[in-house]
Amino acid sequence: MQLPSLIVLGAPGSGKGTQAEKISKHFGYTHLSTGDLLRSEIEKKTELGELVQGIISKGDLVGDEIVLALLKKHYAGIGDTVLLDGFPRNIQQATMLDRDLFTDPSIVRAIYFKLDLSILKERIINRRTCKDCNEIYNLITKPLSSDGSCLKCGSKNIAHRKDDTSEVVENRLKVFSETFDPILDYYRQSGRLLEVDAQQAVDKVFNDLVNLISI
Ligand code: AP5
To answer: Model confidence over 167-201: pLDDT tens digits?
Structure first.
C-alpha cells in the first residue's frame, strides 16, 4: 500500500498530537511536530529558542521563515513517509510546503480534526505531557498514575506547557480562527482534504483515521 504523506490540521487541543503518535506507530510514519521542535529549542536554550520563547508563551505564531527552516532541517533524509503536525498554520506556510518541502505534493493528504471549539479550553488547561516518552495525558479524561508518574514509562518528569493557561489558550484559539479557513480551502480545492470527527473518544478517532489513511 502506498501511504500518503500526512498533515494533521485542527485547532489547539483538537487531538493532533495524541493521534499523530498513534498513527505514526501504527503505519511507520515519522512524526514531525513544529510545536515540539520549537519547545525543544527553548528547552536547550539555543539562540532560536530565546528568539521564539516570548512569542510562544503569548500564543502568537512564530515567523514563517523561522519555522520552515527548522522543519527543513529535521525533514532532511526522512522521505515521503512523514506526518506533519502543527505546520502549516497559515496559507503562506501551506504554499511553502508544496513549493519547498514535498517532492510530490500530489501524494499529500491533509486531515482536518473537526470539532466544536467550545470544548477545547477545558482539554488544553488539563493537559500534561511526559517529558521522557512524550505520552500526552489529561487530568480529567486520561489521568497520570496515582503518584503523578507516567503510566507508560514511569517517569515523574511531567510537563505542564506554559502556553496551556486559560489566558494564553484564548489567544491561541483566536489566532486559529483568524488563520484557518484559507488553509482548509487550499487543501479542499486541490482535492487533498480529508476530515475526521475529532470530538469522539480517542480510540474511535484513531479507528476512523486508520480507515481514512488505508483507503
Ligand atoms: P503546537 O505545539 O503545534 O500546539 P497546537 O497546535 O496549539 O496544538 P496542541 O499541541 O495544543 O493540541 P493538539 O491538537 O496536539 O492536542 P493534544 O493531542 O495534545 O504549537 C504551540 C505553539 O508553537 C503555537 O502557539 C505557536 O506559537 C508555535 N508554533 C508551532 N507551529 C508553528 C507554525 N507552524 N508556525 C508558527 N508558529 C508555530 O490533546 C490536547 C488534550 O486533549 C490532551 O490533554 C489530550 O489528552 C486530550 N485529548 C486528545 N484527544 C482527545 C479526545 N478525543 N477526547 C478527549 N480528550 C482528548
So the answer is: 999 999 999 999 999 999 999 999 999 999 999 99
pLDDT at 1 over 80: no
Instruction: Give me the mean pLDDT over the 69-96 stretch.
Output: 93
Q: Is the CB of 39 under 6 A from ligand 1?
A: no
Ligand 1: distance of its center to the CA of 172 in Å? 10
182: Cβ contacts below 8 Å, ≥ 6 apart: 90, 91, 94
109 catalytic residue (yes or no) = no
Q: Does this model's pTM top 0.90?
A: yes
Q: Ligand 1 pocket, 15 CB below 6 A?
A: yes
Residue 137, beta-bridge partner list:
128
Instruction: Please spell the DSSP secondary structure of 77-125, one letter per residue.
Output: TT-S-EEEES---SHHHHHHIIIII-S-GGGEEEEEEE--GGGHHHHHH
Q: How far is the CA of 112 from the centre of ligand 1 (A)?
A: 13
Kindly report the average pLDDT of the chain as a whole number: 96
Establish whether 22 is a catalytic residue.
no
Question: Up-side HSE of residue 117: CA atoms within 13 Å toward CB?
Answer: 13
| pLDDT greater than 90 at residue 77 | no
Atom of ligand 1 nearest to the CA of 34: 31
Cell of 73: 532541517
Distance between terminal CA atoms of the chain? 9
